[in-house]
Amino acid sequence: MVLQRHYHRKKFKCRCNFHWPTIKILFGFILINFVSTYYNEQVTPITSELDFHLFPQRTIVNKFNSIPEVRKYFNGRIATSCVNPNVPQTEIESKFAMSPGNTIQLSTLILTLPIMMMISSAATSSVGSAIAFTAPISDQDLNQFKVIHTLKTVGQLTLLNVYQSYKHFSDSKNIKDHLIEDLHKTESEFRAYFDSTMIKVIESTPASGECYDISLLIRCLRVLSECYEPDNNRKWKDKRELEYKCQKLANKRNEAFHCCIGINSIEMEKEIEDIKFLIHDILSTLIGRFPSASSAISILKKNIDVKISSILAQPLGKLEIKSYQSHKYLRAEIKPYKIKCKKYGKIKILDFLSGSDSLHDIKLLYTHILVKQSNRHKTNVPIKCTDIIKMASSDSILLINSETGGGKTTNFKFGIDDWADGGHVMNTEDYDFFFPMMFRNQRICSVAQLIEELIPNVKVHIDSEDIMTCIADPSFTVLFYCDGYDEQNQNSHKLFLEIRDLKEKYDHIRVIVTSRPESVKQLYMNRGDILNIEHLQILGIHESKREEFLAKYHNELVSAGKSTQSTDELLIFFKGCSAHHKDLYRLPINLVILSWIWGEDIERAKSVKSAAGLYKTILEINYKKLENRIVQNHTPNIDFGELRDMINLFEEELFYESLVSLRHDRMYLDEQGIKKLREVCKLIKLPFSELKGAYLLTKLEWLADLDESLELPHKGMMDFYAAKCIASKLSNGDESIKGILLKLYNNHRQFKVQKYQNVLQLLGGILAMKDANLVKEHGTEIINLLAEIDSTNYSQWYDLYSNFDLNPSTADYFGKLIAPHIELQVMLDPIKDADVEYLSTLIQYVNIDSVEMNISGTEMLAKLPTLIDVLRSKECIIKMSNIDDIHCDLLNFSIKQNTKIHIDKVVIDKYQNHLPFLSFCEYISECHFNNSWRELHCAAPDISGCEVGKLWTATNTIEALPKHVNELYLGILVDPTTGKAQDPGLAHITQRYPGLNKLVVQIKAGAMTEHLQHLPDVTRTTTVSHNITISECTSLLLSHLSDESHIQWAVKTARKLQPLRDYGHLYIPRCSLNMEQVCELADGLKDAGVKVSGVGVTQRGQSEEQVQRLLDGGVSCANDDDLSSIGYW
């Protein structure tokens, strides 16, 4: 039992923590004492009930030195022995009578018991330095440990000898030198083969490989196998081959390490015998592969047999037991830890607004969010939110950033909840441990302490050093998910640096970090010398999912009795909102707040049009409730004006303390701030508990070392309070925003405006709602401060602009201020109708060279024609991508002659009418008429007026094709009456397009082709390396083959259309022939003399034997996905 003292405002509290291993020992000693009275103070041996040697020596020494009573009993001799390697171990064992066969004197027990109690008490009362009292090790555990030890030692020795026989270089050269010097691999190729941990071992240990573990030896064998025999992958799957057997041995090692269940002696002997048999099989196969080494391998066999016999006969050493036991305990905690992690999947929906304590499953409320890559070379690539964790890689930190309320923390909670459920949604099933880390937590400063906090049972059995040893073991796959980098403090920063260093050392560790945009640059600077940053940006909830999200949350409020309003009416209102208004609700937190406001006051919900307006409405509703409670419960005769003045004093102090907390990167109010708030309440004679609840201050559970600690429920609310403080000071005469902020710093060099980005955006909205004169007085400074953060950030200016409720005077004023900071090239990916509305207003104040729009998704851009008219008047180049059927009519209406428009990609699936807007385009990179090309049903629209890079189409005349094309994928139409293939004039295609470098022609099965001529030769030469070039010729697609008759037709047609040179490829897309018929087709093509570089067959469900048969016959077999590089199937 451990007594801990906590002083709380002159109150003494005693907390009792029972250390159960110690209690067990105590009862054991009592029993021994009872027995000893009958046996002349002699007791039978105690061998494994308490293993003193497993105690962490450093911790024991510290505790002995800090406990004066130890010297009284043993004069410090035991403490010295614990760290002095020269002191015989027998002296320690005799003192404590713990070695096998010794007897324990009752007098020794009486002396030992208080020592144990003192050590336990001291250990438990000190954070992060607890002594691990190891539970008994069963015989079954020891048997399992012997199996692991056999694999780790004898298995490693076997694979080492395979590696040394396999490699084609001497022991004086390591595998890195061999790959680079002998096989001419590059440094980057070498690093692609091995993870960072393996590379360190290769570079720092003997070249012979004797220090390589099983995982590294297997990787070396795979790399050498790939380099020596590029087509050698089959050997790793053939049960007769050496490579397969080596992999099987490595798999046995992994299975043994992952097993938490002990085995009896018979099972152990059988397991070790199986290992011995497999090792003999490997060595026999090795002799067959390398006969010259037969004598050395035979000697090795005998040595291995001796080692295995020794392992079976001798007990394991204490260090080996300690290592294996630590792994066992940590792995045994995975299941109970997952059960504990389920609490992360239960959230209190709107608890900070509605006061609800009911728990809800996050899976019922979670809605998919929009995510895109934002790396230097992979910008604006959309990512499924369920694939986020899968993108965590071995050589980089995965950064997820979004603005306040974007869904970072919700995604974090959903990730760990999914891991606890099996990980099938967020792809977390491969991780043994998922460790969540909150940057705002000030109490934890080391990885060992974090793990002990998350899995308290671990520190009972394993000391901190062994925890870190287990985490470093590749047999554990670990994910650290670190939430809120922008909220870090001194301790959490120290913890993150340790996590980062672990990530640099060990490839089995993955790290994900979430942050707000203003802290992204700081993370890049702190990523270390080795790691890269894989950057993802959360864009919010897709417009098609917002109604679903809103309905989920409001229905939960109704279920919890916190709203009596209609969800259907809420959705009707939301559907009728303007594009600008709807875009405000792309952020999940704003939709959450809207659903709560709707439940409280419908009219207020309808009037909100900005983020600042949302937070302002929360305060207004809560103030009204507070006013009613004070009148009813405390001061019924108070004047409402006087009450307002009194509460304003509390608001003023709260808002200032929020700004101070933000300056110190805190999400909570410190003791001094809370003391000031209490003093204000005492002055105005209002209860602190009432005001605390009305302004959403909640108890901070994890910061137990503070007398009282309160936090705001969301960073957005703290930013709003801070912005309210600045607005109030500006109203009272303060001259500048920056001056107000600088007063918070003793050293002005510490001031970083990035920290206040969201505050400045909310401040603009507050000033706009408060006084238009204040907007004009301080607007320029807001713009200049935001420009210091990132003058080129389009979304930053849009968020600021959107906070003005589109008030004509303020919008016009700020439009003129923002315009100089807008880049000449604007990229909107993806474009939204709110962007269109904003840009249409803004562009009148600035000259823009080009606007790039990704027109994807289902949102109809109703205001796009207005924007295009403005851009045309400015002679601005419009670049569009991902145009689909939805927008064809709109673009036909809005794009007119003399519009400078470039289209990156247009995909038309069903639209069959004339598309004049395409003819007005100056250039189209890719144009897909899928309804014409894929099914060959009808001719594609006439686009003869423009230039196209790549075109997928079908037509009955080449005159309808564009005036220029580089790559042409042309479908031959069939006359529905006669069944004849219509010749569009292929014989003249090279004369019409002298720059054509690729031609692919498609014909549907059954078409009459006797009248067609040979396909023209169109050749493209591609350089794939410095000395290798590939020539690609005209290709043919014979599509929709479905029965026996089509086989002869395909052979005849392919021979008829054979170009003078070989076909580049002959593909058979959308084929329903069985494998035997496909082989018959391949034979027929060969017999007919069809010359083709490769044959591609798109067919699902092929067995391994069928695929091998095709490969043996020289036919390349592929499925639909493998052919996607051409882009039309």
UniProtKB/TrEMBL annotation:
<keyword id="KW-0472">Membrane</keyword>
<protein>
    <recommendedName>
        <fullName>NACHT domain-containing protein</fullName>
    </recommendedName>
</protein>
<feature type="transmembrane region" description="Helical">
    <location>
        <begin position="21"/>
        <end position="39"/>
    </location>
</feature>
<keyword id="KW-1133">Transmembrane helix</keyword>
<dbReference type="InterPro" id="IPR027417">
    <property type="entry name" value="P-loop_NTPase"/>
</dbReference>
<dbReference type="InterPro" id="IPR007111">
    <property type="entry name" value="NACHT_NTPase"/>
</dbReference>
<feature type="domain" description="NACHT">
    <location>
        <begin position="398"/>
        <end position="555"/>
    </location>
</feature>
<dbReference type="Pfam" id="PF05729">
    <property type="entry name" value="NACHT"/>
</dbReference>
<keyword id="KW-0812">Transmembrane</keyword>
